[in-house]
Design a protein that fits this description.
Blueprint lengths: L2 H13 L4 E10 L11 E2 L1 E14 L4 E6 L4 E6 L10 H13 L7 E7 L9 H16 L6 H16 L6 H8 L4 E6 L5 E5 L5 E11 L2 H21 L13 H7 L5 H25 L3 H18 L5 H11 L4 E6 L5 E9 L3 H16 L4 E5 L6 E3 L9
Parallel strand pairs: 4-6
Antiparallel strand pairs: 1-3, 1-13, 2-7, 3-6, 4-5, 7-8, 9-11, 9-12, 10-11
Helix pairs in contact: 2-3, 2-4, 3-4, 3-5, 4-5, 6-8, 8-9, 10-11
Bound molecules: alpha-D-galactopyranose.
């Protein structure tokens, strides 16, 4: 039985009615890391690993949730929504934010499950938040557009779950388009789609299978370090609002000698924004080789200057870069574990997979998981009968 059929069966078993179905994908990011909360650029895409939700209305004000993969339930009321420190918070947070914004969904049932590996840095939480907001918007005809919904997801994560993440993950999951990357300006939220013309090249994720406990605290520290760089520079350039307004010349002049740590953090961000712009130009020119080199540069910056990598991610990139047919590799997402993203020529895919699996094991004692990704549409309704978007 496929996952959607299982979710439907579980829904009908528990609630004796028929649900609507929403597919909400995880994301990859080709380049532009730790730039979103600095009002910079990112280049993500939605992937063919997703959270699937079966959702239906209730006539009372209760919320009944079933996490199919974990076989856990949550029962609560719309009138008493507070964090419970479990997966339910990603859903409750969205409901709380909808209500804070003046929208009133009724009670509902939800069974969800998914194919996004948890803890691999592929944004399963953003996918769940988006999927829930999208489903409630459909179910209760709230009339919200996608941008409003994804901003609600971010607020749910920031204010309810308590993770001060940027907008990239929600944006990519909600706005993804099959076969395209999205260039997002995280200052204005302007965005455009660029076709990924990568004939014969596959996007391959290598999961380090580590997730260091540092991830949240260090993420917040990096945010604070970037903000303090901006604060120092404001003394010299009062018009500056974020690292988006900062140049390497400013950093060299005012931070390099006086505050080397803040200098390295800020310089990484300024350079990563430039790498992304150069990367978009390379993609437009079909120059995947040049794009791949920028990915290596991004990893180097994340590892040495921004210091959000870990030995396992560095080893995965190091193994990859010495393999024939690998065009680029770098750590992806927040860091301290999760996956690397690699651009690999199709003909070497099998050889690459066996080699990196064996060598990673030899060098770290750990197993890696390899995921080959397709770029798919963002959050959408599906019909379980056809697997297609209805209407
Ligand atoms: C995590 C956050 C994103 C972004 C990345 C780093 O995935 O959720 O908002 O900051 O880290 O690019």
């Amino acid at each position: 039985m496929d996952l959607l059929t299982q979710l439907t069966a579980s829904y009908q078993d528990a609630f004796h009615t028929s649900p609507i179905h929403v597919c909400s994908p995880g994301r990859v990011n080709l380049i532009g890391e730790h730039t979103d909360y600095n009002e910079g650029f990112v280049l993500p895409a939605a992937i063919d690993k997703a959270i699937y939700l079966a959702v239906g209305p209730r006539s009372d004000r209760q919320i009944h949730l079933i996490a199919h993969d974990l076989q856990e339930t949550y029962v609560g009321s719309l009138d008493d929504i507070k964090p419970v420190q479990t997966w339910a918070d990603y859903i409750l947070g969205v409901v709380a934010q909808l209500r804070l914004a003046g929208h009133e969904p009724g009670g509902f049932n939800c069974v969800f499950g998914g194919t996004i590996p948890i803890g691999a840095g592929l944004s399963s939480s953003a996918a769940l938040e988006n999927g829930m907001g999208f489903a409630l918007n459909e179910l209760y005809q709230l009339g919200l557009d996608r941008i409003t919904l994804l901003k609600l997801s971010q607020r749910a994560e920031n204010d309810f779950v308590g993770a001060k993440v940027g907008i990239m993950d929600m944006f990519a999951s909600m706005m993804g388009r099959a076969g395209h990357v999205i260039k997002i300006d995280c200052r204005s939220l302007d965005y455009s789609y660029a076709p990924l013309r990568m004939d014969g090249i596959r996007i391959v994720l290598c999961d380090s299978r580590v997730q260091h406990s540092l991830v949240t605290s260090e993420y917040n520290t990096r945010r604070a370090e970037c903000e303090s760089g901006v604060e120092i520079l404001k003394n010299f350039y009062p018009e500056i609002r974020s690292l988006r307004d900062v140049t390497m010349a400013m950093l060299d002049l005012h931070l390099r000698d006086t505050n080397p740590l803040i200098y390295r953090r800020c310089a990484y961000v300024v350079q990563e924004n430039q790498r992304l712009l150069d990367g978009v130009t390379a993609l437009e020119a079909d120059d995947i080789r040049a794009f791949g080199q920028l990915m290596y540069g991004s990893h180097e910056g994340l590892s040495k200057w921004y210091e959000v990598s870990c030995p396992e991610l560095d080893i995965l990139v190091d193994i990859a870069r010495h393999q024939p047919g690998v065009l680029g590799a770098r750590m992806m997402g927040g860091g301290f574990g999760g996956c690397t993203i690699n651009l690999i020529r199709e003909e070497v895919l099998d050889a690459f997979t066996s080699l990196i699996t064996a060598e990673y094991k030899a060098r770290t004692g750990k197993d890696t998981y390899i995921h080959v990704c397709k770029i798919e549409d963002g959050t959408h309704l599906i019909s379980p009968a056809t697997g297609h978007i209805p209407g």
